[in-house]
Amino acid sequence: MTLYGVGLGPGEADLVTVRGKQVLEACDVVYSPGRLSRSVALEHVDESKIGDVDFPMTRDEEKLRSAWKEAAAEIAPNARDGDVAFVTLGDPNVYSTFGHLRRTIDAFHPDVELEIVPGVSAVTAFATAMGVEIEAGAGLSLREAANGASPTGPDRMILFKVTDAPATHDGLVDAGYEVTYGRRLFMEQGETIITDDPEEIDERDYYTLAYAEKEALEIEQATAAFQRQSGTEDETGLSSRTAESDTGSDESTRAETTTAGEPVGLGSELHELERSEGFEHGDCEQHWY
Ligand SMILES: C[S@@+](CC[C@H](N)C(=O)[O-])C[C@H]1O[C@@H](n2cnc3c(N)ncnc32)[C@H](O)[C@@H]1O
């Protein structure tokens, strides 16, 4: 049978994926490494299914290794006899406790089948929660900023473990970044805070991240023309989006929108290539073009 690593998403019970929920419901035991992941899991399974594993709050590697060995020894027999889940917040493969369990199981119980159910990671959830768009053509790096660290370099960074926001902020601002902080995003427990003032979140809370972007960074998108245009067109009461819904005809709408967007590079070779690749892979909404 199987040990499933199930990503629960950032902390709201209805952001668990459909597959994650199905797996949790089907498993005999659901192990959770912490209070928050446990409270999300409990929205989907009965308390009687929750398994006991203990993790000490220590950096002592010897103690940690022995705790993981104990956890693996508890979980492995149950994963041989039936299906069990180990839940983590976010995604099990992104800075997650599940990695420790997987390595320990691989080393000491290699016959146990493992499967991972991805979850909505804070790496992507932050963008929606904080109103940030990572546009096509932009890069995004993931870094850690524990204990006031201020990693620098990339144009755009998401920083995890922002435990001393004022100190991290100073370093980032000195290096020319604009920074926004997000605390407990999409999380049921505790207060969600989004701010660009580090003093507002100077109290340590592990579930804090930062989005840092080099000042005056801008990538011009083809569709930015629509915004400029709708500003002018609004005066006549006809924006391209309104025209789209008014005509009710997809074909005519597309023609109109395309014409409206042409001045900003639409129709260029690169854009055509990007568009056809997007269609091919199904991640490109035709009406945007
Ligand atoms: C060890 S990492 C775990 C990441 C998780 N596996 C994921 O995929 O989202 C923990 C860090 O992720 C960030 N984080 C995770 N969930 C968050 C949330 N709901 N709101 C804000 N930050 C969060 C915080 O920076 C926290 O210190």
Automatic annotation (TrEMBL):
This is Cobalt-precorrin-2 C(20)-methyltransferase. PROSITE patterns: SUMT_1 (PS00839). The keyword Transferase applies. It comes from Natronorubrum bangense JCM 10635. GO terms for biological process: cobalamin biosynthetic process; methylation. Residues 2-137 form the Tetrapyrrole methylase domain. One of its GO terms (molecular function) is precorrin-2 C20-methyltransferase activity. The keyword NADP does not apply. Signal peptide: none annotated. It holds the Pfam family TP_methylase. Residues 237-246 have a biased composition (Polar residues). Pathway: Cofactor biosynthesis; adenosylcobalamin biosynthesis. Its EC number is 2.1.1.151. It comes from the Archaea. Keywords: Cobalamin biosynthesis, Methyltransferase, Transferase.
